[in-house]
Write a structure and sequence with these properties.
This protein is α/β, with parallel strands linked by helices. Helices cover 44% and strands 14% of the residues. It has helices at 18-29, 42-54, 69-83, 107-135, 156-176, 197-200, 203-210, 221-232; strands spanning 9-12, 33-38, 59-63, 88-91, 138-143, 181-188, 243-246. Helix 3 (69-83) runs parallel beside helix 4 (107-135) and helix 4 runs parallel beside helix 5.
Length: 260
């Protein structure tokens, strides 16, 4: 089955690096117009957009801090001006934050993660939904994490934000369903991106990581991107209000393969 997103207008937050960049490219390859949001490294976003144009696909770049409501509103207004609205939002931008136990972490460091990962997700989803509801079509897809359900010591803000995204997704999906608008989350496991290079580029770290993954390999950004394309397409037209895990089985608790 070939999936076409021809004519769809998509926005990918944090779209110029890692999983976001892979999703942006996959959406473009499927025929969508893609707006690449970034906060830093504008040259990368521009290069990506240039490559999309060279391939015959429309693209634009938008700088915005998703934790800033005014900048988020301005970003969606730019999409309105360029393309007259939005059909697909990939709520991808996020950070894992400072590593520290809950009783040691500075409050500002903790709230920074929540502001970006949760409030930023909400600000963008709210803008997208306010446009999708009147047109009675659209898909909001958030990038969550296996840590939506797996605890991660030293990252209480990150795990809290991802767990909250899971319930926010379900609630918004329930609200939007009568208008034919779908809301989903995509939860990657261990994916080979620069943000976790310190783990997969280290033999000991990689050995430890693979023990947590039943498929015994780290995932590629393109594998997450392919699932994103499926979920925002009509192939998943009857799927909403769910977090879809792309994790090689990490959430299947591999330690229990040898007995309880």
């Amino acid at each position: 089955m070939e999936i076409s997103l021809e004519g769809k207008r998509a926005l990918v937050t944090g779209g110029n690096s890692g999983i976001g960049a892979a999703i942006a490219q996959a959406l473009s390859d499927a025929g969508a117009k893609v707006a690449i949001n970034y906060l830093s490294n504008p040259e990368v976003a521009e290069q990506m957009a240039g490559q999309m144009h060279n391939s015959g696909h429309d693209a634009l770049t938008i700088e915005a801090d998703i934790a800033n409501q005014s900048e988020v509103e301005a970003m969606f207004n730019k999409m309105d001006e360029a393309w007259g609205g939005i059909d697909i939002l990939i709520n991808n931008a996020g950070i894992d934050g400072v590593h520290a136990n809950s009783w040691d972490i500075d409050t500002d460091d903790w709230t920074k993660v929540i502001n970006i990962n949760l409030f930023g997700n909400f600000y963008c989803a709210r803008q997208a939904l306010s446009r999708m509801i009147p047109q009675r079509s659209g898909v909001v897809l958030a990038t969550s994490s296996v840590h939506e359900m797996i605890a991660w010591s030293g990252h209480s803000a990150y795990t809290s934000s991802k767990a909250a995204i899971g319930m926010l997704t379900k609630t918004m999906a329930q609200e939007a369903a009568p208008y034919n608008v779908r809301v989903l989350a995509l939860a990657p496991g261990a994916i080979k991106t620069s943000i976790n290079q310190g783990v997969w580029d280290n033999a000991q770290g990689m050995t430890d990581l693979l023990e947590k993954i039943p498929l015994k390999r780290i995932g590629e950004p393109e594998e997450v991107a392919k699932m994103a394309v499926v979920l925002v397409s009509d192939a998943a037209s009857y799927v909403t209000g769910r977090t879809i895990y792309v994790d090689g089985g990490m959430t299947d608790y591999p330690d229990f393969a040898h007995g309880g």
